[in-house]
Write a structure and sequence with these properties.
globular; Arc Repressor Mutant, subunit A; 3-stranded antiparallel beta sheet; DNA-binding; homodimer
DNA sequence: GCTAATACAATTGTGCGCAAGTAAATTGTG
DNA sequence: CACAATTTACTTGCGCACAATTGTATTAGC
């Protein structure tokens, strides 16, 4: 193969968009960790709590959908949050299949402690307000396009 | 608490930049999966192979650094790639601590099969060339800023 | 040259993350 | 009504991902 064969350049790590996205996502979770440790939460548990802080109660199915998580992941996460006393898990009255999650008082108290986190993380990332907006738009656009494919 | 208290809005899932980034990253890995399955690779194994396809040989330490992975993750991944016959693991001559990874012929053969993947994934994401460029720049910028914090 | 400090890698433990398979409740169809 | 299809959730198995700990080789300080 000739030295100036560039047909494999698309396989170079530096030419991938997916890699920095993947690495950035992991690094973000790592940055959250020390803050969340004070709340006794992991990142995944945190995003579950965010939904509950906003809605007080939600079905397991809706949660799985809006967080893009499947039950294999969600079930043990919800059990741990239940065990920690941050939420309750009950079957829906009208449909025994459905699981209804409800925020507890202990869970609600975390909300105040969590208030400072988003700004701290934003500072870590060091992007301008405009850049944050662009990043938000592009990731949501890609996400939407990809979920349409399946 | 008054209904028009917006001080918690920063905790709404829809107002987070981190969440779509996290969800998008996971969705991306999911999109790769069927393509990589044909090469008998996971996404993490794939990015290891990308480095080897470009460099033929690399030390474990360099790999960990450029992929932003620690040894707890990397060690078992490398063992599996070794077992699959895609690379060899040898101690460096001059320093018994260091692990040197070398691409095998079998590993090199995968490169051709992998060639079509980046374009297929790009199509899934459905962004324009310009948008890909912006996404690349912003994620690398955030990544660089965050790793400076630690 | 001996010991302390450092660097590199492996191991252990915990928690995602998802595919595949299973089970139970509900809904749809004849 | 009976029974097939669907929905919802759980379980199992495997592979990351990382913090914390341990082990070994090299280098630095004296």
């Amino acid at each position: 193969m000739a030295k100036n064969d560039h047909s494999y350049d698309i396989l170079k790590l530096d030419n991938q968009v997916c890699f920095p996205l993947y690495a950035c996502s992991k690094e973000l979770v790592r940055q959250y960790t020390p803050y969340l440790k004070e709340l006794n939460l992991t990142y995944t548990q945190y995003i579950v709590m965010m939904v509950l802080w906003e809605r007080e109660t939600v079905s397991s199915r809706e949660l799985a959908e809006c967080l893009h998580l499947d039950y294999g992941t969600l079930t043990p996460v919800l059990k741990r949050l239940d065990q920690a006393g941050y939420l309750t898990r009950e079957r829906a009255e009208n449909d025994e299949r459905q699981l209804t999650l409800t925020l507890t008082e202990t869970g609600r108290e975390l909300k105040d402690k969590a208030k400072a986190i988003p700004e701290a993380i934003a500072k870590c990332m060091g992007l301008t307000m405009e850049e944050f907006g662009v990043l938000y738009t592009l990731t949501y656009k890609a996400l939407k396009n990809m979920e349409e494919k399946q």
